[in-house]
């Protein structure tokens, strides 16, 4: 093996390193790995970083595994509502069995208030069930404001985030590894 451009010893471009490549991953790299940027004049790069941060920390990425554990192919809600925690995955009405509680429950001197506000219910029956899937109590309830109406700008930002999520582990960082773009470029400039 020679030391050069594609060698992992080189250190200048680790995208060709065999330890980084993961064929099972959607982008070809180790999950969460981001190659070194080759553009230093991209003015929208902070926006790109913010989208990656949102995908990693804010999206509900555990819902497909929750559904798979219960032998369900997809949620009743749309993918937009599922990843943004914008409602119950099975569209259960007034269902709050388990899940996290959004209000503090330990205030000194105030006993018994957890029954009145902010507590998760002990009753695991939704107020209305339209099919048998909604009676499944293994999938946790939604802990969000289900009455919030999302704006079209929220959906547009979701579409942008979903596009970045498809190439989250992209080895080529928007370029191409096999240099096939170079042959198209030369064919255009040939004459």
Task: Show the helix and strand layout.
Elements: H1 45-57, H2 63-69, H3 79-83, H4 152-166, H5 180-188
Helix pairs in contact: 1-4
What do these coordinates show?
Helices cover 26% and strands 0% of the residues. It has 191 residues and is mostly helical. It has two domains: 36 residues, no CATH class; 130 residues, no CATH class. The N terminus is likely disordered.
Largest sheet: none
Q: Report the helical percentage.
A: 25-40%
Order of helices and strands: HHHHH
The overall average pLDDT, rounded, is: 69
Shape: elongated
The structural domain count equals 2
Low-confidence stretches: 1-15
Q: Report Rg.
A: 24 Å
Pairing-aware structural class of the strands and helices? Answer: mainly alpha
Features:
191 residues; mainly alpha; 5 helices; elongated
What's a concise summary of this model?
By secondary structure, this protein is mainly α.
């Amino acid at each position: 093996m020679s030391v050069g451009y594609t060698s992992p010893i080189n250190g200048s471009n680790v995208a060709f390193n065999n330890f980084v490549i993961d064929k099972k991953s959607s982008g070809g790299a180790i999950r969460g790995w981001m190659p070194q940027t080759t553009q230093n004049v991209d003015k929208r790069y902070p926006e790109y970083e913010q989208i990656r941060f949102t995908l990693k920390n804010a999206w509900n990425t555990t819902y497909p595994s929750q559904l798979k554990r219960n032998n369900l192919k997809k949620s009743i809600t749309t993918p937009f509502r599922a990843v943004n925690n914008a409602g119950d995955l099975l569209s259960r009405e007034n269902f709050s069995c388990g899940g996290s509680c959004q209000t503090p429950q330990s205030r000194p001197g105030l006993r018994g208030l957890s029954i009145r506000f902010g507590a998760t219910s002990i009753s695991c029956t939704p107020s209305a069930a339209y099919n048998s899937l909604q009676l499944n109590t293994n999938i946790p309830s939604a802990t969000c404001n289900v009455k919030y109406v999302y704006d079209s700008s929220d959906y547009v930002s979701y579409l942008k985030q979903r596009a970045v999520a498809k190439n989250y582990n992209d080895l080529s960082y928007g370029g191409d590894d096999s240099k096939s773009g170079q042959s198209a470029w030369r064919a255009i400039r040939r004459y």
